[in-house]
Fold this protein.
Amino acid sequence: MLIEFIPVLVLFALATAIAVIALVLPAFLGPRRPSRAKIETYESGKLPYGDARYKVPIGYYKIALLFVIFDLEVIFFYPWAVVLRQLHVFGLIEMGIFTALLVVGYVYEWKKGGFEME
Amino acid sequence: MRPQLPTLDLVPLYPLLVVTGWAVLVLLADLFVQHKRALGYLALTGVIVAAVVTVALWPGVPTSFQNMAISDGQALFFNLVFLVTGALGLLVAIEYLERKDLQRGEYYALLMFSLAGMIAMAAAEDLLIVFLGLEMMSVALYVLSGSNQRDMSSIEAAMKYFILGSFASAFFLYGIALTYAAAGSTNLAQIGSWLSGRGIPKDPVALTGLSLLLVGFGFKVALVPFHWWTPDVYQGAPTSVTAFMSVGAKAAGFATLTRVLYSAFSPTFTTDWVTVAAVLAAVTMTFGNLAALVQRDVKRLLGYSSIAHAGYVLVGIAAASPVGVRGMLFYILAYAFMTAGAFAVACAVERREQSTTTLADYAGLAQRSPLLAAAMLLFMLSLIGIPPLIGFWSKLFVFRAAVEANLAWLAVLGVLNSALSAYYYAGVVVQMYLREPGRSPAEEVAFRPWRSALAVAVFLAAAATVVLGLWPGAVVNLLMGV
Amino acid sequence: MLHSIWLVIAAPLAGVLLNGLLGRHLGRAFVGLVGVGSVGVSFVVGALALIELGALPAAERSIGVGMWDWITIGSLQVGMTLRADALSLWMVLVVSGVSLLIHLYSVGYMGHEDERMFARFFAYLNLFVASMLLLVLADNYLLLYAGWELVGVCSYLLIGFWFHKGDEEQAPVVLVDGSQVAVPPNLNPPDSGKKAFIVTRFGDFGFALGVFLIWSTFGTLNFTDVFAAAPQVPTATITAITLLLFMGAIGKSAQLPLSVWLPDAMAGPTPVSALIHAATMVTAGVYMVARNHVLYDLAPTSSLVVAIVGAVTALYAATIALVQVDLKRVLAYSTISQLGYMFLAVGVGAYAAGMFHLTTHAFFKALLFLAAGSVMHALHDVIDIRRMGGLRRKMPVTWLTFLVGALALAGFPLTAGFFSKDEILLKAFEFSPWLWAVGLLTALVTALYTFRALIVAFWGQPRDWPLYEKAHESPPIMTAPLAILAILALLGGLLGLPIVFGVPNWLSEWLAPIFAAHAPAEKHMLSVTTEWLLLGISAAVALVGIALAYWLYAQRGDITARLTVTLRPIFVLLINKYYLDDIYNAVFARGGQRLAALLAQGLDKAAIDGIVDGGARLFVRGGAWLTQFEDGHIPHYALGMFVGALVLVAYLVLR
């Protein structure tokens, strides 16, 4: 039974190994000549300003949360799509209910003004 | 690998489906209805429909939904308790929210969702469904606790409840995982048969799982030492929410706790959890009662009292016998009426600008509002356990079960505890009947049974306290079929 | 009527509903009519039922009247069933009869209350009577317990009825040498009510356990079944059951060590005191023991305990009554003392004698209380006997009736109290001369304190002239019940004349089917001469006591005053009621509160402190560390839960 989990273990090991290698190797191999421009925070090429820890308007959180929720729900479509052929009509009805519930939430958010920034 | 198609056997889940569907309906109606009060009545209709469906399913059906849900007599009985609580909670809220200027549609939808979670818990035959129901119930309750956004203590209550609740949920999930590791299944019956068949006696994995599950349940039903949140949250939350959750969440927790203990962890681990349950019961009721003695705030006082009552209920579970289970079921029903009723009175007495009621607010209530005071008197006497009110029978049944289960010490402690509790319950009565009203008496709603929804709730609870006290046989006969 | 015996309870209950819900709008006259009338119905129904029962053959004098099946759990079946037999119907008659007179009196006494309070008072009063009638008519322990608790609740509401009053400070007693002895204040009504409720509940705790034990042992709670099965049960079990039940009686009937609530119950309106003392509450314990005589007969140890507690309480309370300055408190302690007699009687197996004394005591104690109420009424609620004096001239009817009551209480020959007390002393002598001696000593003290109160209040010269000038006789609606009760207190003895008189002891014979059915055959080992002798001794003791009181308080007040100085320590001890209240206060009330405060504040509010003391510094550090990130107490709570979880896991896994 446990043998089935070997691939998972391998995946784990590989992921860890790559992360460790990517972090450790450069420290030994790469030359290190820090300059002011190099140690500055990387801001996609723009000049950084101010402190990174400042208050973000709550609207962002709201949008972000909604995004995460709907995004996660949509992931459910993937496994469903894979086995859709076997599920036949049942699968279709099931997903219909699922989508309908999602839509209810969506409509509710919309009407309640959840998508407005303020 | 072809996926197995589930058989769509939804009949036992009808109460759950009705409540869930109705919750969605209320949610949508909120978008179009201006008078939010109407939503309360809409939700109430849904609760009544669900109750009718539940009664129609009596005396229960075998497991269904791929053995994940069960609607036996016990589940249906709990459904009724939840629905009664929900109905009382709605009736109380309709008026309370209006007075507090908190009338909003999502309140009713959230209450319905929470109700759905409770029903799912009672019907769960699988640890995952338990968790699903638990979270569905809890998340809705977290939000409800904070529904008075103008009141800091309400927000604080919601935060406390949420954070500590998540903490407890983590324990619970870990418990599920360990149990799964020990038994290879999340299905309660299968766990039970595996553990008693091929499981290892004293299996540390299973025992750790059991204890972590107990932590999760202990949090929900407020057992010492997992009770910390209770007084703060009961006090801070809007009183109408407290009335609902003090009963509903507790009943749901006990519903599942019983099932988990009796079908998954019996008989191999029975001796283990019986000891734990007995000790927890003793500690919980003693602590709750002692702490309630010094309370000045009625909501907080009732919060500690609810802790004590969780202890009494646990006595029935610790008895580990059908008699004990029936006693526990009866106790929860009694508790539902007494406590929801008491909180409903607290709603009525509470002032517009405050979120709490001190004992002094009850001074002279008997003169200002004799019927309200009389109802509160009944609830207090019943909570003490004075015959012939319903609270007396509930105590009698659980203690009796404890004696039969060779836990006489627990029964003695229980009786001693209820003698002790008389002190603080009597304190409320003293205020109502034997004190002059203060200089600025609380502005409780005039008690007009024919006009106010709140009054209807108080009246129903008081009537049940008396009538079921005089004819407890009706409930007992019902329970014999469970 | 026998099969409609439920009417006895239903009538006052109907009165409760009518007066409780609508009383405010009905006016005093109607409320009074409903209150008195409903109890009157009870009395008439009870009397008719008694007559009907008497017409039956002695063996069939026990009728169960089932109303509905209260509860059925497995084999246990408890019905809402009443039992009408010689004992219960006799109690019904005494309770409803005395209550009827007290109700009548209350119409006058409470007349100056506003209509709301008036209606409320009668609603409570009726509920009180209904509860007591339920208690005496119950056919099973559960129903008995229900009545038992309801009586407690009612007493609580009634004692605290005048909730606006505070503690009443008492003027200190000034001795002839100029020194003062502080008198403990009278507790305020709400606290008195609470005290009564809670103290008696501690007895009820034992009672409830007793009922539990009966259920576990017998599997039934019906009197008949339990009594039938009792001889097969081990004596130890029966002893445990009877002792537990007696705990309830100790609470309800104010015996040592739970006697402290009764004197404070005086804070209620006087008719309530009369009701509590004479008819509806304190006698419940005696009745309960008599009802369970089958069990007590099987447990000699328990009976002995009952008898000893009774005897000791009788003497204890009588001595305290000697120095009380509050007229009602004198009577309160005398009740405790007389109840002691009754327990002495039922303890030595003289159940009929106990019931006899219960009956006569109901007459004369109701009389005394109502007369004291009449005095209070006249003096505008002054109850301190040191401010009275000479009242006999202003209030002749009250004076005469009080005198009759006092004579009966003191056991003056041929009054009701004389015969009933004598019968108890007789039986006590048969059982043990020691108990008899205690009883006799108590009788002497009783005569002394009764007449001390009477003389100080009614005899001599007025001590407070302005007060005296205002005094007036009470209206007829109050004096009429007094007169009726006075006649009963004088002639009540006819119910149970001593056998040596050569006439049948009516009450004894009436109750014989109940008590003789199971009891061992009565042995008459006392000779007629001894009986006459004992009778003479008790008569002499009563007379000596009365004479002594007259000499000490009416004639030679100077000797009394000097005596008090000489015996100062004893005086102080008595006036402080043997310090029982203070001890309880220190141990239970304060101790319990401190413990609760410790748990609530120390553990709950600041979990952290408790844990520091517990020594688990690691967790405290963790908690302190967590507090940096979280506001409020949530981390503490979480820590508490975590520790709980650890303990749970450790226990389950490691054990």
Notes: Chains C and A do not touch (no CB pair under 8 Å). Residues 174 and 348 of chain C are 43 Å apart (CA to CA). The mean pLDDT of chain C is 78. The longest helix of chain C spans residues 189-218.
